[in-house]
Predict the 3D structure of the following.
Amino acid sequence: MNDNKKHVWWRWPAIFLSMTALGLASVPAFDWADLDPLYRGPVAGGSLLALMIGIIGLSVWFFFLSSFKATLRYCLLGVVLVVIIGFLASVRSFDVTGYLGIIPRFRWQSDPQEQLELARLSSADSGLPPIDPTIDPRTDFPRYRGLTGDGVVQSLELLANDWNVRPPKLLWKRPCGGGFSGFAVAGNVAVTLEQRREQEVIVCYDRTKGTERWIYAYDAHFRDPTGSGPRATPTIADGLVYSLGADGDLVCVDVRTGRKRWNVNILADCKAKRIVWGMTSSPLIADGRVIVNAGIDPAANASMAVVAYDAKDGNRLWASGDRGAGYSSAMRATVAGQDQVVLFDAGGLAGLSLEDGKELWRYAWPTFQDMNIIQPLAIGPNTFLISSELSNGCAAVRVTRSGKEFTAEAIWQNRYLGSKYANPVILNETIFGLSNGTLVCLDARTGERLWRGKAYGHGQMLAVDGHLVILGERGELALVAADQRAFRELGRLSVLEGRTWNTPALAGRLLFVRNDKEMACLELALRD
């Protein structure tokens, strides 16, 4: 009888231990087996449930049902409770990763805003040359994803192709404000958008020293559990900076002085409602127009989803469209022989008239919570790559024209690339992208996956000189060969601390990176 009782008692801990092991191993095993990513979400959810049941079951069994001495059980229970209470009391805040993991920030860690304020007190811009915002069309990076808007940067010099031998050199590193904006680089300055306490702040830094040259601040503070602060990268054009805040504040300031030229809140102006994770449309400057995606108010659609303002004075020129805003940015492209605006909004991919915003064509691409985020990527004549969640995967959309009528249709579609918010690039008819954080390579003509590489998390990448420069989610930089034959990492180094989602900028040999706590500039080495 006693033996049977022992057998019964040990059966439950064995079950709970198995569930804990299953919860820990299921997702890594799923990724290793390279199964259909559509089912990764349910597997991750089931793994979390199994892990929770396993841990809770083991705890209940050990502390209340096991045959261990009561003194030992109660002492350990007290220790566990003290550890849990101490942990919760010591946590200042949490960061959320792209995999929905939690990164705690403890009270003994310095507050990023305090670090920034101390750094500003000790910083001085004396001795710096006058600001020169002249854009070098060969090397500068004046807007989101670079001069051409596709993340591909042209290099005038042969850059080192092995970071293990010739790694980048750190020129400067500084604290910065919050948010997910990237840098726009022109002339001798780099401009970004930050959250500083209760204000959004356009900040101009010296390109070579990282010293603050000027700021333009206004009251705004977008808050979200996944990360607070502004999202969009500013645009530099014709000596002016154009910036869109998370609450819809479109601001134009002079690059040389930081003085405001004009501002308008696009949500109020277009009778739209802020989308869930804040406004992220980096301003497109085209023929004297500033074009942004305002979206709609679903309860009272004013049909002013996309809006163009006069670049000089901020007067509205046109507003059109009845679809919700996405998290992508308007871009200019010649499609089927016509110069137009291409936009990946909440409803899908669309082409709009540059003159009046009239919709010319559309390819429907509905996604979970309207999360169309990446920039459409031109991968062939009149053909764009779009990608969202793993359930959608990716598609190559070709636009054709007959007379005045446009038609958009997918020429291939698969789930090999679920970009979420990590922009892919294309080189030599080969697509490179982070699919749920793992680097993959696709044939642009067929969509066939050529290889699957390492996981870098939900980061961002640029392409330069036949290589990929990847800024991973953990703040690591990696150099990868843009080779369709096989994955080859050519070096890796840690640069930033904490979750990093911001897009890097590369101007000449200077690589600018930041997250919501710190920023850095590195000089890429030359090849021997």
Remarks:
- The mean pLDDT is 94.
